[in-house]
Amino acid sequence: MVKAVKKTAIKKVAKKPAKKVVKKAAKKAAPKAPAIKRASTLQTKGRAVYIVDGARTPMIKAKTKAGPFTPVDLAVEAGRPLLTRQTFDPREFDDVILGCVNVHPDEVNPGRVAALRLGCGAEVPGWTVQRNCASGQQSIDTAWKYIAAGNADLILAGGTEALSHAPLLFTEKASAWFGKFMTARSTGAKLAAFKEFRPSMLQPSIGLIRGLMDPVAKVNMGVTAEILAHRFNISRLDADTYAARSHHRLAAAHKNGHLEEMHAMIDRKGNVYDYDDGVRPDNSAEKLAKLRPAFEKPYGKVTAGNSSQITDGACWTILASEDAVKKYGFKPMARIVDSDWSSLDPSVMGLGPALASANMLTANGLKQKDVGAWELNEAFAAQLLACLAAWTDKDFCQNILGLEDIFGELDQDILNIDGGAISMGHPVGTSGNRITLHAIHAARRLNSQLAVATECIGGGMGGAMLLEVM
Fold it and tell me: Which of 74, 131, 135, 305 could form a disulfide bond with 429, CB atoms 3.0-4.6 angstroms apart?
């Protein structure tokens, strides 16, 4: 289900900022979820499809050089412990679908390469999907629809990304010079070409930075968050307070063993990675306030400290039909109820979750209060808080979402209860898969029957998935 937002409506949002977000300190470790009222009325679209298991790697923060794992290496590290504990042969999968944005040049079609390295066999297809920040959730969505339609029974769906391996590129000027030099046939022609060389040609063009620039709106992803912070009156303190809380929650999750889907991995040198190494337990709004704005100097609200980190990581989920559940004796974790992909202007892409989640719940006869566990990807603290503010703004909800009243104020005690991308990182092809899997674990702890996993998507989109937790 895809719904596009009218341009006139977007312009109206730009002219009229919403009311200031109310700051709430989420001090409770495991608050109670709201009562579920309508879960029994949810209908199955096609055959029932279940997420029966899943696993992820720790998220490794990118340093000053390429990390120890390529995208496929990470996918294999996440997949091995997951498949080892299954009762079926990996060759019984009907398909392997993997989300990945920055594909390594030695691993073209990482979905297929990962499937072969994981022992799924030459007969099992493997392929790659790319929907920017939602690529990992796209793999689940595609698998769900294949199984629901009766075209498959058992699919391995995941996401992987090694942002530390993002390429350094030659500029167009340098590329043109190399082309001229390499095609020069005579010694004289080569010498003539060599005289045109300039040291500045060795200055690389950083692929990751280029990827963060929207090619249509001509703004960096960080600037889109600044736009939303301005429109919805998100203060620097609001953003820093949220970011610090993300770190505190992730640190508590590690300490209390609430990341059961995470499995340690070992690199070729014998180094062990057993936790999300970007977490800073002692972080605070006061410390974050010392950082300079990253995109809109000197008064911007978005900094490196209240934005998602650049990391490497992978995650897999196993999806099964009712027949596969019976055949292999699975104990389903959750049933996929619905998903939504919504679109809007790329310059305000961060509002994607506000659209997709509201559209999806409304289509299923649900209200925000009916969902007791939320995972909203933390691309930027200001962007996430803008989504929450939009849901409480009557003008936005009526003119953009088409609702009669506000969508509602989301209780932050049930939102990203174990931290998120600000504290653990946002490996772009992975995050959608990770938040979908973790939403199930969070819902179980919160005693909630329903969970939503949602994210903004570079290019002006939003994705959301509704899960009925078993």
Answer: 135
Number of Cβ within 10 Å of residue 226's Cβ equals: 24
* Beta carbons of 414 and 33 less than 8 angstroms apart: yes
Catalytic residue among 120, 315, 397, 456: 456
Tens-digit pLDDT profile for residues 38-55: 344 566 678 999 999 999
pTM over 0.85? The answer is yes
Which regions of the chain are under pLDDT 50?
A: 1-40
Out of 100, 133, 387, 397, pick the active-site residue.
Answer: 133
Distance, in Å, from the CA atom of 96 to the CA atom of 127, rounded to the nearest integer, reads 6
Enumerate the domain spans of the chain. Answer: 2-26+42-165+310-461
Rounded to 5 degrees, what are φ and ψ at 385? -65, -30
Superfamily name and number for 2-26+42-165+310-461: Thiolase/Chalcone synthase (3.40.47.10)
Active site residue 387: no
- Known catalytic residue at 456: yes
